[in-house]
Amino acid sequence: MTTTETTPRPDPVTPVLTKRWLSPNSWRLSTYEQLEGYTALRKALTGTPEQLVQLVKDAGLRGRGGAGFPAGVKWSFMPPNEDKPHYLVINADEGEPGTCKDVPLMMADPHSLIEGCIIAAYAMRSHRCFIYVRGEAMHCIRRLNAAVREAYDAGYLGQDILGSGFGLDITVHAGAGAYICGEETALLDSLEGRRGQPRLKPPFPAAAGLYAAPTTVNNVETIASVPFIVNGGADWFRTMGTERSPGPKIYSVSGHVERPGQYEAPLGITLRELLELAGGMKDGIPLKFWTPGGSSTPLFTAEHLDVPLDFEGAAEAGSMLGTTAVMVFNETVSVPWAVMKWTKFYEHESCGKCTPCREGTYWLAGILERMVEGNGTASDIETLLDICDNILGRSFCALGDGAVSPITSGIKYFRDEFLALCDQNSKAKTTPALAGAH
Fold this sequence. Notes:
The protein is of the alpha/beta class. It has three domains: 29-238, NADH-ubiquinone oxidoreductase 51kDa subunit (Rossmann fold, 3-Layer(aba) Sandwich); 248-330, Ubiquitin-like (UB roll); 335-437, de novo design (two linked rop proteins). Helices cover 45% and strands 11% of the residues. Helix 5 crosses helix 7, helix 14 runs antiparallel to helix 15 and helix 16 packs antiparallel against helix 17.
């Protein structure tokens, strides 16, 4: 594997986060304990919360849910005093189109998440943790509940964990399948029993989150990385990935590839290298466009095959790393059709709280659908861009920004395809009129 990075990188298929996935009964506590399970917890409990926060900062672990915010910095926002309860909330509401990394992680290795939760809660002086799972993932919810019961029975959860004096209770909460609840403040509202809608910030969750108490919301993959950092150390973690985006990452590769699936690799791997791991393009049909981090990230084309897929590389090339949901499309796929499908999803999932997103996604979906059905005009392209401009940066949360990304990037790279669709539509509409004139 070729790379321009100066940081030494291991073989991209050396598993870290996924190393237990193929073990027999990998979700059982007995298997987990045989494979270094809960050794990191014992090590963590011998240190102080401040030492753990500093360790995660030194490792450079960044949020794996899309934003890439440094996890240790986020943990440090929790106030040191305990006059109010401190809550740890795990965002397992995986709803981004193309994203499918957290559910298999929780299915195959739920105890890595639970161990990470206990360590993170200890670091933030939290005694209550909630894992908010997408409602459709019923098998995942059952498996997590079974793993939590095993952890309680073994003394890893409850009061006085392993005789340390520290106690933690974990509740697995099933959501109701709303994409908006992937936004952390909407998730908190849903967890409190209210309709899932984003909150105005500030106050931020670290000051007033769940039940108006200090709260940290982390992604599943972020927290599952913590036990490996505790055992391996910050320097070991930094041997993978890049200087500013260290560590391993699970890439969800789907679409027109020979072997779609989850591929763990160091941050900074390229699509060219991922395609090699996934067996190449399906049936040898060339690549046309792809998403680096799900449908809410701007599209990339075949010209971006060698863009480093880390937080900086994706941003410098004009997109976002997002949730590393790499959806690959070959030359048989119409860009306007794919963009329309995604936009209809965002229209459906908009919570309706703010006008730009509620009204904008409705009109975007309507115009795109009309164009794809054969009733569009060339002026519709400018109308789409104008609506996108009125949504971007003006909606209450990131859903609005995500909804416009495939449209603006699709038109940027494939404007001719949108224009050809309009020209074709114009001819289809004028031909019957000419026939009638005769």
